[in-house]
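Lecture notes, unit on protein representations.

Consider one protein chain, 444 amino acids long.
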Amino acid sequence: MSETLIQRIKDLEEELEQLKSQLLHTNGAHKDTGPLPNETTSSSKKGKKTLKERPFDFSSHPRRHVALRMAYLGWSYQGFAVQENTDNTVEARLFEALLKTRLIQDRQSSNYHRCGRTDKGVSAFSQVITIDLRSSQFAGGLGVIPAEVVAAKKKDADSAPSELPYVKMLNRVLPQDIRVLDWAPAAEGFSARFDCQARTYRYYFPRGTLDIDLMTDAAKRYEGTHDFRNLCKMDVGNGVLQFERTILSATIKPVHSIPTADPYDLFIFELKGLAFLYHQVRCMMAVLLLIGQKLEAPEIINELLDVQTNPRKPQYSMAVDYPLVLYNCHFEGLSWRREEEELNHALSSLQQHWTQSAVKAHVLHGMIQGLEEVTGGVSSNSFWLVEGSRQRNYRSLLERPRCESLESRIDHFVKRGRLKREEGENGREAMVHQRKRSKHSHNS
C-alpha cells in the first residue's frame, strides 16, 4: 500500500514538471509574438496610454459658428462668468464640457461671446452664447469655417453626415443643473452679446401683505430711457461710466392667471430692456418692495431717476439673488434646432426637482398655517427678500446717507491708475479704461 502511494506521488511530480516546462515555453512565445487576444500586458497598457495622449488634430476638422441656448439653476454657483477667485461658475463647467468633448481646442481661439452675465445665485431659462465648434460639415454651410488642413481622403459632399449632436454631447458631461436646450447655425460675425435685440428678466415674490397695485404703478415708471445710476451698483472700476439704459416694459403680474387673496400666491416682476447694469434688476426690485410695504410712495421712482436733483444714490440693500431669472434673450435670424430626446431629459430632470421642492414648500406652508392659527395673524414675508437685517425704525430713502458721486468715483480710479483722462476729437474730456474691461454692461 505504501509503495503504491509513493509511486503515485512520483508520477504527480513528473506531471508537475511537464506543466512548468509547457508554461515557460508558452511565455517565451508571447514575448516573441505579442500578447494573446484578450490578454492584458504592461506593454499593451503603455500602448493604450500613448494612444490616449495623442493630441487631437483640430486643424483637419472644419469649425462652425453656432449659437447655443442654455438653461441653468444658478443657486449653487458663484455666477455665470468665469472668475479669478473661484472655479464654481456656470461658464467654468461649460468650458470643461466643451474641452472634454473636443468641440473646441481652447477658449482663446473659440470666438466666444455670451449674451450676458448673471450674478451669484441667479438662474436662466434662456441664456445664449455664440462660439466656434468642431463640425462634421466638410461640404460647407451657414457658419462653417473650412478645415485648415485638407484630409488625405476627399470628403464627398453628397455623403456628408448630419451635424454633430452638439446638445447631446454637451449634456452628457454637464452637471444636471446646467442644460443645453438647442443650437442654431449662425453667420461668422454673429455675436450673442452685440446682436441681442433685448433681454427679459423675471423676479419671483410672494404677495404677502404687499400692495400689488402700488407696485404695478411704480413699475411702469421704470419704462423708457433713463439714467439708472441710483438703481444699480456703479461699476466704475471696470470701465462702466455711462448709466443710461432703455427699459421696454416693466410689469407686475401673478404667476397664475387667476390670482386670489392668498398671501402665499406668487407674483412676477418682469422687466424687458435692451441692456442692464450691474445689480440693476435687484436694486429696482428692492425699491418696489419698499413701495409695496407702503414705506415709500411710487413717486420715489421718478425722484431716483432724476439724477440732476439726486446725483448720489441713497444707501439701501438690494433684493436677494435666488428669485431672479434671465428669462429670455431675444434674437432675430436664428433658426433653432432642437433634439426632442434631450428636451425630454431636461424636462424630466426639472420635474423631479420641482416635485421635491414643491412638496417641501407645502410641508413648510402647513407648519406656517398651524402657527398662524395659534397667533391669529399673517406676518409679512416680503422683508426676507431684501439683503441684510430689517430696520426697526424705517428711514425714507431720500433722508438716508448717500453713496459717492460718479465724479468722485472716477477721480478715485484715475488716482489709482485704473482710468485715464483724455481729450476727444470734439475737445470734450473722455475717460479711457486702463485694463481689459470685465463686461458688466449686461449684468442683472
